[in-house]
Amino acid sequence: MKQRWLRSTVRDLQLYYVPDISSSPLRMDTNTNPLGENPSCREALEDCKTIGLEQYPSTYGDALRRELASLYGADMDEIVVGNGSDEILDIIFKTFMEPGGNVVMAYPSYSLHGWFGQINGGGSVQVDLEEGYQLDVDGMLKAKGDLVILCTPNNPTSNTFAKEDVLRLVEESDRPVVVDEAYGEFARPGSSFIPLVDKYPNLIVTRTFSKAYALAGLRVGYSIANKDLTLAMQKVKVPYSLNKVSEHVAVKAVRDQDFVRRTVDIVNGERKRLEDGLSALGLYVYPSEANFIMFRCPKDSAELVGRLAAKGVLIRDFGKKRLLENCARTTIGTREQNDLLLDRMAEVIREWR
Ligand SMILES: Cc1ncc(COP(=O)(O)O)c(C=O)c1O
Questions:
Q1: Residues 296, 299, 300, CA angle at the centre, nearest 5°?
Q2: Residues 181, 193 contacting (CB under 8 angstroms)
Q3: For the chain, which residues make up each domain, given as ranges?
Q4: What is the CATH number of domain 40-255?
Q5: How much distance in Å is there from the Cα of 211 to the middle of ligand 1?
Q6: pTM, rounded to two decimals
Q7: For 235-259, what is the mean pLDDT?
Q8: Matching CATH topology for 18-37+258-352 and 40-255?
Q9: What is the pLDDT of residues 156-174, one digit of tens each?
Q10: How far is CA 195 from each of CA 56, 69, 192, 353, rounded to the nearest angstrom?
Q11: End-to-end CA distance of the chain
Q12: 88, 112, 208: which to mutate for ligand 1, most atoms within 8 A of CB?
């Protein structure tokens, strides 16, 4: 293939994270739900035999939009549902970023935020986080771009951003501000920006079923924003992109908030124990409000992650990235999973000295 056949904006792209999982039965690398499959799945998938798979799903996923609207006390016309929150982010970029334009994003953060800019024919202006991985609000306000995006809790640093900083960014920006809350369920109560979408004409919040709902394999995500922003996004979305099976299971999962609460309780209950265990091994642990923890290794984090993978536990290395030197990230698991992680990590560190 000739390079010039490729659109100029995508010539230097690399494949996304494709880990070798063959020797690591315990996956703590993608911040998914440690409790296993969502209990709504079994029954809901049984129903799928009779939901008419020969027909298209509803064009904009109305059943799930209705269910989420009732969960949040919102209007269904304030909600877009799609194939993972990654699709929702893609829609947002397609709707609000001019070709050749830019997204203003925090760095370090979710790498796909910049990637969505690039694949949509634009770019990103990355504004470094400050001390304690907090937002440089003035820097982001000054940066030129068609929209602003951040995630809180932030991936991979695991902290939340100060609420007043995000609010100032929203209030002082004359452009859409996207608050990606993929890990919002795990953060301190009252920290979500969803209740503010009617107050701010430029605020869009995104969420996912991949984490607290344990449905990463089904690919379901959503946004909440005022009706004008939402309608503009619906016009851009690929019609029917949320398939009938995923929508049906997600509706049932929304009705089972007990499972979400149980997940959050277990993860939040385990966080301190895992943080203490990692610190006791000589690792520097950063504060977390998510279902994962970032820590800094005294030596090469890639080697630690590689040695741990060989012992059956996969976590994710970020150590080659600027501002994340020798940092790695682990999902917070169940007590048994965390104990196994700590045991194996202790072995690695002993053998490594
Ligand atoms: C910050 C953030 N946003 C969005 C996503 C994408 O989630 P989904 O599985 O809903 O596409 C992730 C996935 O890890 C994430 O970390």
A1: 90
A2: yes
A3: 18-37+258-352, 40-255
A4: 3.40.640.10
A5: 8
A6: 0.97
A7: 97
A8: no
A9: 999 999 999 999 999 999 9
A10: 33, 12, 7, 50
A11: 48
A12: 208
Give the whole-angstrom CA distance, residue 17 versus residue 1. Answer: 24
Residues 6+ apart with CB under 8 A from 338: 270, 273, 274, 277, 332
Residues in the chain: 353
Q: Which of 17, 28, 86, 107 to mutate to test the pocket of ligand 1 (most atoms within 8 A of CB)?
A: 86
Interacting residues of 14 by C-beta distance below 8 A, sequence separation 6+:
none
For tokens 């309780």, name the residue. Answer: 265
How many whole angstroms separate alpha carbon 204 and alpha carbon 222? 10
Q: How far is the CA of 185 from the centre of ligand 1 (A)?
A: 13
Tally of CB atoms within 10 A around 297: 23
With bands split at pLDDT 50, 70 and 90, how would you rate the model's confidence at 353? confident
Can you tell me which residue has the tokens 């919102």? 74
One-letter amino acid of 141: L
Contact 315, 328 (CB under 8 A): yes
Homologous superfamily of 18-37+258-352: Aspartate Aminotransferase, domain 1 (3.90.1150.10)
Q: What is the pLDDT of residues 59-118, one digit of tens each?
A: 999 999 999 999 999 999 999 999 999 999 999 999 999 999 999 999 999 999 999 999
Percent of the chain with pLDDT over 70: 100
